[in-house]
């Protein structure tokens, strides 16, 4: 009888002890987790601050004209962003024009037409295409696509379309093979798997009842896709496209190999150009620390970041709305 | 879902009857199917074209000296040893730095929702970090590490890769922890386990397979990155494992060699490209296979 209270207090003591240790552990663990979370905020803030402050000299030296100027002259120290912004937007647009229909086609095929055994295999293959490092796309583009464009595609297109009034302007010029069109095509190949995988996920997640009732009314697969699946999943599909756009905007190595790297702005898609990322990759190693050129490159980096942030924000809004349906 | 088209073909619905409109609808359907088939064939063809090009052009350089010798001047029979070891060192270290930070941040996002707005802010920013163009990460590390230190270094390259690595791990960890059933956490809490033990010993443990897969995929992704290394670890023609000095890496070496005018350097670039692609794709296939196997074992 005498021992009972003591054992109870002992047990109480143990329980209190583990409780205290547990609370202490929770405190430490919570601190570590929060620190890790805040570290991410810190890195992002660091990137923004460093790029903007590094580019500030260029922004203040050229003012708003920095964005509209096509100059890029390290000797007279005149720099402008217009050509590379133009190149970035044009290559991304070309990439989307080609990637979206292909991604849609593959996703439609995977979801509705593929034999199940084959679908899994092909889906993996498409995902592997997304995993190939960008420098490989660059090399392949440089050694395979560029000669192919120069010998077969560009002369033929110029021959048939070069004299058409209006759009003919886009297809004139010497067939170098390198240029905005080649850059855009390589980007298209790189972002197709991304867009395709979002589309496949969305198309699969539509409630079966919706599709089955349309099929029950006698609709064809294409009619179901166009009138039921696409309207239902429009926002998520847009989100996926924006995700691909973001990747195309910032892609560096693949574009650097095939775009021709020239600071010219014109109508022809066959003409060499540059993008923000390719310009940074090429010019940065040749600019000395503290120079105005370096600052101009950082300013370009800041502009690229703003463009890709806007794209990403759009994609998130679309994807959230699309999946909350 | 797959069976729906077949099932409707048996009950001779509208589009199988005669009449101009039905014929038109059938033609459109055929045409769209054809286009979709063609799109799939084209995309697969491109993948195989890339692989075929790499194999036919890169296999010629696969010999023992390639793995044993460092890069050397054109015509003197160099290899890729320093680039391979440099890549392994920088990628491996980046993963070592990035995994704990990324996992803790992922835990923060999935388990500390009581922090409210700041959790969603961290999630949003982490997603942004995931899609920041990698060349900007290179610029960032250059400005905060390389410029103050006055020289390029393998450590800078490692940190640039870690910045790319972390958000991928954050995303995977959060997603996988969300899949852990609520009942499992509650059972652990009911046994009197403190919160941190529940998270580490129960949640993380059951999400282990998925998180490992994510880490493998992240590893594959950063091992092929070139742009962030250009201004950070720069590349090195000699054998060097010193983190405080410029360090070679396979992607940067490929970039430097592929644009050169020397045949043997271009050959080495193709061999390097083949090596890195095989490594990246093999890791991907392994990770996916592992995930499907674990996934089906759990069901």
From TrEMBL, chain A:
One of its GO terms (cellular component) is plasma membrane. Signal peptide: none annotated. It is a multi-pass membrane protein. One of its GO terms (biological process) is phosphate ion transport. InterPro entries: MetI-like (IPR000515), MetI-like_sf (IPR035906), Phosphate_PstC (IPR011864), Phosphate_Transport_Permease (IPR051124). One of its GO terms (molecular function) is phosphate transmembrane transporter activity. The chain crosses the membrane at residues 35-59, 79-111, 131-153, 173-196, 265-284, 296-319. Residues 85-315 form the ABC transmembrane type-1 domain. The keyword Cell inner membrane applies. Keywords: Cell inner membrane, Cell membrane, Membrane, Phosphate transport, Transmembrane, Transmembrane helix, Transport. Pfam families: BPD_transp_1. Gene3D superfamilies: MetI-like. It is found in: Cell inner membrane; Cell membrane. Part of the binding-protein-dependent transport system for phosphate; probably responsible for the translocation of the substrate across the membrane. NCBIfam families: phosphate_pstC (TIGR02138). Belongs to the binding-protein-dependent transport system permease family. CysTW subfamily. This is Phosphate transport system permease protein. It comes from Komagataeibacter diospyri.
UniProtKB/TrEMBL annotation, chain B:
SUPFAM superfamilies: MetI-like. GO terms for biological process: phosphate ion transmembrane transport. It is found in: Cell inner membrane; Cell membrane. Pfam families: BPD_transp_1. Residues 84-287 form the ABC transmembrane type-1 domain. GO terms for molecular function: phosphate transmembrane transporter activity. One of its GO terms (cellular component) is plasma membrane. Belongs to the binding-protein-dependent transport system permease family. CysTW subfamily. This is Phosphate transport system permease protein PstA. The gene is pstA.
């Amino acid at each position: 009888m005498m021992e009972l209270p003591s054992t109870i207090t002992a047990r109480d003591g143990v329980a209190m002890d583990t409780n205290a240790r547990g609370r202490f552990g929770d405190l430490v663990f919570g601190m570590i987790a929060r620190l890790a979370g805040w570290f991410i905020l810190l890195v992002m803030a660091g990137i923004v601050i460093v790029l903007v402050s590094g580019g500030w000299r260029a922004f203040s030296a050229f003012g708003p004209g920095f964005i509209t100027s096509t100059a890029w002259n390290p000797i007279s120290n005149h720099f402008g962003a217009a050509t590379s912004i133009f190149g970035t937007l044009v290559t991304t647009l070309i990439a989307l024009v080609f990637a979206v229909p292909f991604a849609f086609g593959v996703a439609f095929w995977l979801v509705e037409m593929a034999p199940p055994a084959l679908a899994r295999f092909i889906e993996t293959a498409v995902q592997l295409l997304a995993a190939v490092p960008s420098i490989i796309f660059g090399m392949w583009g440089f050694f395979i696509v560029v000669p192919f464009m120069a010998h077969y595609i560009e002369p033929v297109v110029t021959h048939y379309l070069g004299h058409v009034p209006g759009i003919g302007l886009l297809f004139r010029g010497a067939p170098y093979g390198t240029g905005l069109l080649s850059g855009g095509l390589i980007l298209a190949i790189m972002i197709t798997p991304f867009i395709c995988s979002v589309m496949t996920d969305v198309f699969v997640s539509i409630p079966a009842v919706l599709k089955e009732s349309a099929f029950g009314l006698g609709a064809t697969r294409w009619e179901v896709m166009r009138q039921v699946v696409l309207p239902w999943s429009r926002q998520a599909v847009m989100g996926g496209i924006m995700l691909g756009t973001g990747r195309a905007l910032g892609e560096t190595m693949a574009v650097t190999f095939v775009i021709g790297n020239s600071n010219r702005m014109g109508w022809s898609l066959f003409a060499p150009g540059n993008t923000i990322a390719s310009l940074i990759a090429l010019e940065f190693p040749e600019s000395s620390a503290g120079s105005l050129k370096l600052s101009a490159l950082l300013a370009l980096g800041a502009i690229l970041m703003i463009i890709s942030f806007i794209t990403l924000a759009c994609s998130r809004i679309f994807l959230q709305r699309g999946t909350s349906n | 879902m797959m069976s729906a088209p077949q099932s409707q073909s048996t009950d001779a619905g509208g589009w199988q009857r005669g009449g101009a409109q039905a014929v038109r609808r059938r033609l459109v359907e055929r045409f769209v199917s054809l286009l979709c088939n063609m799109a799939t064939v084209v995309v697969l063809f491109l993948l195989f074209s890339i692989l075929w090009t790499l194999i036919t052009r890169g296999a010629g350089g696969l010999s023992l000296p390639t793995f044993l010798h460092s890069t050397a001047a054109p015509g003197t029979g160099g290899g890729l040893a320093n680039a391979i070891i440099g890549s392994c060192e920088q990628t491996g270290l980046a993963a070592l730095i990035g995994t704990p930070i990324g996992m803790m941040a992922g835990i923060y996002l999935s388990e500390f929702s009581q922090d409210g707005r700041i959790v969603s802010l961290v999630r949003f920013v982490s997603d942004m970090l995931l899609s920041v163009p990698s060349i900007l990460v290179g610029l960032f590390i250059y400005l905060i590490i390389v410029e103050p230190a006055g020289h390029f270094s393998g450590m800078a390259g490692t940190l640039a890769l870690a910045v790319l690595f972390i958000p991928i791990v954050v995303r995977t960890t959060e997603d996988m922890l969300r899949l852990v059933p609520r009942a499992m956490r509650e059972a652990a809490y009911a046994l009197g386990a403190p919160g941190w033990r529940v998270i580490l010993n129960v949640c993380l443990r059951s999400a282990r397979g998925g998180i490992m897969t994510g880490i493998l995929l992240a590893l594959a992704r950063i091992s092929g990155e070139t742009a962030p290394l250009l201004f950070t670890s720069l590349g090195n023609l000699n054998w060097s494992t010193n983190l405080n000095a410029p360090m070679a890496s396979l992607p940067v070496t490929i970039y430097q060699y592929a644009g050169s005018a020397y045949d043997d350097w271009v050959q080495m670039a193709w061999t390097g490209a083949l090596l890195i692609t095989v490594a990246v794709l093999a890791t991907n296939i392994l990770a996916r296979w592992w995930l499907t196997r674990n996934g089906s074992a759990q069901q």
